[in-house]
Amino acid sequence: MRRSGTACAPPSRSRPASTSPPWPTIRRRTLTSLPEDRMTNPASLSFPIVDLDQHYYEPDDCCTRHLEVKFADRAVHIRTDEKERRSWFAGDRPLTFDRRPLDYVLEPGDLRRLMAERSGGGVTEPRVIASNADPAFRDRDARLEKLDAFGVEACVMFSSFFFENEFLEDAAGCFANLRAYNRWVEEDWGFAYRDRLFAPASLSLLDLGLALEELERVLAAGARLVMLRTGPFAGRSPADPHFDPFWARVEEAGVPVVLHVSLSTYETEISRIWGEPVNSEMGTFSAFQWFTTFMHRPIVDTMASLVFNNLFGRFPGLKVLSIENGSAWLPQLMRDLDHVMHYTQDSTRWLGGKPDALPSEILREHLYVSPFYEPYYEAPMADLIDAIGIDRLIFGSDWPHGEGKVAPVDYLADLEGIGEADAERFLRGNGARLLGLA
């Protein structure tokens, strides 16, 4: 990245992945196509899939290609040290949670293989591949060809790294990088490419005015979904009436809001109050930090805040999607929130007004959950159907991330006992309606 002159010059768009993997002892494999014997036949379905959780791998210049010049010194960018090691930086600071570049990644589905082999006492190594080994990881037309091979009609595409938490005290810098990132997404993938690839626009509530400006811009550019992280923003619940202008515009536009797993500020704030190291790399996280700061706790607290602070009472047209946050928490959360509501009926303080229904009823109306992440974070499908209903469950494969499976259709084995009509709603119908395809 250039730091002088009149432009923030990005690396070449054709730059290949680094030839030196960050894990030299790990076996690497070159993936060009999925092995036929490891992939479920999509012809076993009588309908195409709508997959609400796929990912792309970002190039080095995803935040610099379109960054405004005056923010060049706060750019999210790649640096190479004297030993040729590459890392993500935010300005002059390395990213805290995960600074590894996206040069080498797990092979699709490999985490499940690793967990299964290690739980059986075996010693195994991850299968690491170059992030450009399959053109579908980085190119939208190649991804469409991959969807055809998978029997997938359409998918929603998410990022593969986080950076908002690096700017909690710098809303202007945060939004400068978000604007640049959204423009890169629009250029390389499109917000609704051929009505098959849907990329959410990334937003934040660190500054209401800046959030509204970028919301208007991405809506005008064709965004069908917007994405927020979980957790509070600058000391406020996302359901605080302070943010009502944002939610009013989202409701008016009719776009769903996605809460995809990401960093939530818990990594810093919760770690601090428990005496854990703050701003730690994920490789140094304690088991306690993983339990209290990542995935489960932030989504549970965020959903409780949206319900008890009456966001859905003020904006009854909102739809919220929980993607890759697990699902084991959902049935218990619905019971717990109803219990709290019963014994706080006479509370004198309701931040956004008192909800006019039980929390479980509110969630059944406004929340959609993608249940597949990996086994320890998921509730059985039957329990989820009992809790929230089949019409609020949406399919997401996490492809091509290692936490998912080799191909989206490989999840069919997890739907044993689900009737064909319910399977169609889960695998296609619910997602298609959210994306305006039904």
Task: For this entry, give a set of tags.
438 residues; alpha/beta; TIM Barrel; 5-stranded parallel β-sheet; 32% helix; globular; disordered N terminus
How does this model look, in words?
It is a single chain. The chain is of the alpha/beta class. The chain has a domain of 286 residues: TIM Barrel (Alpha-Beta Barrel). Helices cover 32% and strands 12% of the residues. The chain has 13 helices and 14 strands. The strands form 4 sheets. It has a 5-stranded parallel β-sheet with strand order 10-11-12-13-14. Strand 8 and strand 9 form a beta hairpin. Helix 4 runs parallel beside helix 5 and helix 8 runs parallel beside helix 10. The longest helix has 18 residues. The chain starts with 48 loop residues before the first strand and ends with a helix. The N terminus is likely disordered.
The count of helical stretches stands at 13
Q: What is the helical fraction, as a range of percent?
A: 25-40%
- The class by helix and strand makeup works out as alpha/beta
CATH architecture annotation name of the domain at 149-434: Alpha-Beta Barrel
- Overall form: globular
Run of helices and strands:
EEEEEHEHEHEEEHEHEHHHHEHHEHH
Number of strands: 14
Major sheet: arrangement of strands: 10-11-12-13-14
By CATH, the topology of the domain at 149-434 is TIM Barrel
For the sheet with most strands, the description reads:
5 strands, parallel
Strand-residue fraction?
5-15%
CATH homologous group name of the domain at 149-434: Metal-dependent hydrolases
Arithmetic mean pLDDT = 89
**How widely separated are the two ends?**
44 Å
